[in-house]
Write a structure and sequence with these properties.
TIM Barrel, 308 residues, alpha/beta, 12 strands, two-stranded antiparallel ribbon, 12 helices
């Protein structure tokens, strides 16, 4: 799947991923009114509004981008109806040719980790039949429990030719409380990066590994170091735009081949119509605003890469 992600990036010339992280406050009133009229002010009604919102944004942007990243918590908050929409969104995006990165941040040990890997990347045998539960192409994984928590994902990645992005240095302000702690004279995130590089070597695609890393856009100097530590891992970069990450700061996340990183934007794209820059589109044309925000992001990042 890493090979396919790279093919999509090359085809679109867009090293970006759209985070499908819906909140009810993002969804235009005309969509929520319609959904509530059909399903009531219920979890089902909220989930229907999310589905219509997602579908419109994907329809407006899928030809410009290589991948999407739905964050499962934004769906779980609406209970079972929300999870059904998560699964429906994954399937719909794949039908449009997009690579789907399930932002699920799972991390446990033994049979529990294996069950998470099966749920999101693998298949399960029930009697004489085999089922794919959620079926994302990649999943985000928390490495805090060490190799015991990662190995079941590696096993599924090898079997299914899918991938993972392991949290190394996250974009949130308090990430340093643990990730920047000095261990044997080095910050913990560097040690995690070295472990990711080790796992990556054991699970290679053609030129990059099935094992990638999450490194936030808000810490560019750390990203520069981690790029060198993990040369074969694709880096998923959250924190662009709304969280303060700038394109010019991200060039060191990429390798000399112009590949090696994919930059995420969530509310900066899916709620673009709420920004002053895109306000002229109006709520009725929120998806067109999202398309323009995607085009602007691609231009911004490619411009920074060309200038480095």
């Amino acid at each position: 799947m890493i090979n396919r992600l790279i093919e999509n990036i090359k085809r679109t010339n867009a090293p970006v991923v759209v985070g499908l992280d819906p909140m009810l406050s993002y969804i235009p009133e005309h969509l929520t009114k319609k959904a509530f009229a059909e399903c009531g002010e219920t979890l089902e009604g909220a989930a229907e509004a999310v589905w219509q919102y997602n579908k419109a944004i994907v329809d407006a942007t899928y030809d410009l981008i290589p991948a999407v990243k739905p964050q499962i918590a934004m769906y779980e908050q609406f209970g079972i109806p929300g999870l059904q929409v998560f699964a429906r969104t994954v399937e719909y995006c794949q039908g449009k040719g997009l690579v789907v990165i399930g932002d699920v941040k799972r991390g446990d040990i033994g049979s529990t980790s294996a069950a998470y890997a099966t749920a999101h990347l693998g298949r399960i045998q029930i009697g004489q039949k085999t089922f794919t539960p959620f079926g994302e192409d990649f999943a985000t994984v928390n490495p805090y429990l060490g190799t015991d928590g990662i190995k079941p994902f590696l096993d599924v990645c090898r079997e299914e030719k899918k991938g993972i992005f392991i949290l190394v240095k996250t974009s949130n302000p308090s990430s340093g409380e643990f990730q920047d702690r000095m261990v044997d004279g080095r910050p913990l995130y560097e040690l995690v990066g070295e472990k990711v590089a080790e796992w990556a070597d054991s699970c290679m695609g053609d030129s990059y590994s099935y094992v990638g890393a999450v490194v936030g856009a808000t810490y560019p100097e750390m990203g520069k170091v981690l790029r060198k530590i993990m040369p074969k891992s694709y880096i998923l970069v959250p924190g662009y735009g709304a969280q303060g990450g700038k394109a010019a700061d991200l060039v060191h996340y990429f390798n000399e081949d112009g590949l090696g990183a994919i930059v995420n934007s969530s509310r900066g794209i899916i709620a673009a119509y709420k920004q002053e820059k895109y306000a002229a589109f109006g709520a009725e044309h929120f998806a067109d605003a999202s398309r323009q925000a995607v085009a602007d992001m691609i231009e911004d990042i490619n411009g920074a890469l060309a200038a480095r």
